Amino acid sequence: MKEVTVKYKSNKTLEALKDLGKYLGFSVSEPVPSKKKEEIYINGVTVIPGDETIDISELHEIFTGKGINAAQLRSSGWQRKR
């Protein structure tokens, strides 16, 4: 099946194409909006927002009551080995 892309400015044009398609035997499909989140740039680095559906309840057991803040975690976890 051949495919054609039509660009239009008015929603009335889309409705007219759908009605015309019923009589002439072609189908009109609209693009599905992507669920892609906006990318944020900080100092030229792309920051992709995290997925809020991930269950992090198991991490609470690991870090609760340890007295570790984010700075300590970064310095101990990502030290460069020389």
Characterise the protein shown here.
- The protein is mainly alpha-helical and 82 residues long.
- The chain contains 3 helices and 2 strands; from the N terminus they run H-E-E-H-H.
- A two-stranded antiparallel ribbon has the order 1-2.
- 0% of the residues are buried.
- The mean pLDDT is 81.
Oligomer: single chain
Shape descriptor: elongated
Order of helices and strands: HEEHH
**What percent of residues are in strands?**
5-15%
**What does the average pLDDT come to?**
81
Given as residue ranges, the uncertain stretches (5+ residues, pLDDT < 50) are none
- State the helicity in percent bands: 25-40%
Biggest sheet record: 2 strands, antiparallel
How many helices?
Answer: 3
Please compute the radius of gyration using only Cα atoms. Answer: 26 Å
Count of β-strands: 2
Q: Order of strands side by side in the largest beta sheet?
A: 1-2
Look at the helices and sheets and give the structural class.
mainly alpha
For the termini, the CA-CA separation is 61 Å
